[in-house]
Amino acid sequence: MDLPFPTLAVHLESWLTESGPPAERPALTALRRLLNEQRERLVNGWSKTIEGWPTRLRLAFGVICLLVEDPLAETIPLAEILATTPADRLGEAQTFFEQFGTAVSSPWLGQALLQPGHGAELAAWMLAEGCASLPLAELVPVVTSRLWTPAGRRNLLCLVPMVIRDEAVHLLQDLRPTLAGPAEAQVADLLRLLGTPSEIHPVRPLPQESKDVPTAPLETPDPGMPVTKAEASTAVAAEPARPEPGPEPGPAPATAPTAAAAAPLPGHTVASPPDQAGQADQLALKTTSLADQAPRPESKPASPAALAVPPSPDPVPARSSSEAEPPLPGVDLAAPAAAAPAPTSTKGGSTTGDGANKHSLFLAQRAPPRVKTTPAPPPRSLTERLAAALSNIYLLLGLAGMAVALATFVLIRWHAAPPEAPRTLKPGERVWIDAVTRRPVTESFLMADKEFRMGEIFRIQNRFHDAQSFYRAAVSIDPAHVEAIDRLGYCLYKLESYEAAEAQFRKALAIEPGFFRSHFYLGRLHKRAQRWTEALAAYRQAFAARKDLTQIGIEYLDLLLRLGMFEEARPIAAELVQRFPTNREIAELQARLLREAP
Amino acid sequence: MTRRTLTAGITLLEIILAMVILTIAIVPMLDVFGISGRTVAKSQNLSMAVGLAHKIAQHLLTVPYDAIVDQPETALADGPDDGMFNPLENPGTSAADALKITAARLPELHAFLKKYNVRYSLDVVGDDPKDVKILITWIEQGRNMLYSLRIYVSRR
User: Fold this and answer.
1) pLDDT digits (tens, 9 = 90+) for A64-82
2) Can you tell me the ipTM of this complex?
3) Where does the record place the region Disordered (chain A) (predicted)?
4) Of A11, A67, A198, B71, which has the fewest CB atoms closer than 10 Å, so is most exposed?
5) pTM exceeds 0.80
């Protein structure tokens, strides 16, 4: 190739760096002149010329061929340049088109869309990516041009904003009456999918697959559709002649139909590259054409030939959200509008011309952000529901038990039990509650207590006979007066009526078993009668009740020493010494313990 | 309660059961406040009784020995001029200065004594020394309450 690389590349680079509309940039003049001069060489070896060029320069070469309206555009289709773009350079290619703005680049891609092969699919994908930044007014023709490729349909549906969904539905509904058979079914499928746009996700065409096989799955052709190469060719031959393109690439409605009318469609044998001819022959056997069945409406800027599409009963199979591919950049349906700007702005491409205004216009028309809904929980079986209900009941019953226990505790703890009725309560007798001891106090007790107190006065004076009479009077008034009974026994003990005294002490203990004084004097009586075991038991109880009384401790310890119970005596002696360190009798008992104990 | 149950909502039966449980649990709780108030009242009454008994005991040391005799139950509020409480106090120098426990002279104390029907009595036995049992009685929550204090008074 004798075409100097730097010359064309430098002019392309200049064209790319210049500002203004692409068709009015100064470098375009030099490029047009250069292309005219080198046309023959470029036609024969354009692929070798651009081999190794950066992606942006290669694409610029393809775009320039379109802009200069040179026949090179047919020989050097943009779709083929796109098809040679490596997979890892697709983002760069997308940025290239985005820098011109989607409205400007969509006609270019629209023409590439109608070329056969993988490049058309890439163009469709890029159109789909750029669809979100298109103003509403310009979206319709782009949509119209893309409806006739499987990937275009698919990418269209996933990117159609909510605000124009109804418009797309109307478009399809207008188209539907003109169709019949599988074509109508396809449109019906499209309408159905438009009803559930959240289930549609963009598909990035894979170069390996799309280069050899059509993007859309091919189904068994409908009997009514042309299934042979001849029929397909007939359908293509029936197309009207392609009009000459205008001097400038206008908006999509003006240019896309013209390109679509003449360009071979995917699957057609017409104008297929030599390396794809054999494949196209085979593909033609399964190609269907809608041209003879569904003439395109006059309002639509596409020729009937452009309607020839591979049959695809379900070109965009509905997917569940879990099966969906991860959304491509700029098509995150769940992202808020503010957080998900148009692809042109998110991918770093600089917008030229009115791209920014279009972007803002689109934002104003954009649908409110979809709220990402959490998946509904799986339906619960009856067993699970019963188990949950039972667990709730168990929990509530547990709480009820705790509440009842708490209530019971509070009631028992804080509501003092009513005082015991005195045993000697007489009919109509008044009863008081002692505010300190909480014991009931009856009128009888008060009367008996008066006698008891008289007996105490005489007892203090060691006038036991006199005291005994008062105590007896007290007991006669209130037989439950424990102190009076005990004191009566004491008086009898002092009067050496031991048996009678023991009887009184036992009587007092029968009424109040813990009455320490009766235990103590009963112990004395047992000791005197040498009933050691009983005496020891009585002293133990008396000492346990009143350890602060010296005499009880002394007599208890003395008895232990007498009985030789040194092991029991040691802690008692230690406790008494600690309590009464200056008591002489206790000291002597401890010395005796140390002396006698082994 | 499991998360699944929470998301499943609450049935009417569960709400009713929960309300019953809350009622069972809350009623005793509310009673605690009443119990607390009654406990405070009891403590207040007992303190009053102790104070009155000691006041009587101190008074007995000032009255003539022979004047210390049995005293039947006597109401403190609007009681007779018995030399024990009425007049309760005489901060002045004349009989006109004496404070009697009446609604006009000591309204708060009078109301308190009236409310609880506070009474006192003396039970005297023996002679030289005299065993004097001072009994303070009052009605608390419908129950007759009693506080007693015994002192010995010798002839001076």
Assistant:
1) 888 877 667 777 677 788 8
2) 0.77
3) 201-357
4) A198
5) no
pLDDT (average), residues B111-139 = 90
Q: Which tokens belong to A61? A: 């070469």
Domain extent, residue A295, equals 77-365
**Predicted local confidence at residue A419, as pLDDT:** 52
Domain limits, chain B: 3-153
- Chain B's closest residue to A458, CA to CA, is B126
**A54-58, A376-380, A475-479: least confidently modelled range:** A376-380
pLDDT tens per residue across span A559-578:
999 999 999 999 999 999 99
Is A286 a domain residue?
A: yes
Q: Lowest-confidence range among A22-26, A376-380, B151-155?
A: A376-380
Q: Do B8 and A391 touch (CB under 8 A)?
A: no
- DSSP3 helix / strand / coil % (chain A, rounded to 5): 60, 0, 35
Closest chain A residue by Cα to residue B33:
A414
Which of A347, A365, A383 delimits the end of a domain?
A365
Chain A residues with CB under 8 Å of B137 CB are 432
Q: Which two tokens stand for residue B15?
A: 């709400």
Q: Does A386 touch chain B (CB under 8 A)?
A: no
What distances in angstroms separate CA A71 from CA A32, A35, A36, A64, one per listed residue? 12, 10, 10, 12
pLDDT at A275: 41
Out of B5, B126, B147, name the one closest to residue A435 (CB): B147
Confidence (pLDDT) at A38: 80
Helix and strand element counts for chain B (H, E): 3, 4
* DSSP-based three-state secondary structure for A179: coil
**Closest chain B CA to residue A387:** B5
Chain A residues with CB under 8 Å of B52 CB are none
Phi, psi of A249 (to 5 degrees): -70, 100
Supply A506's token pair: 């036992």
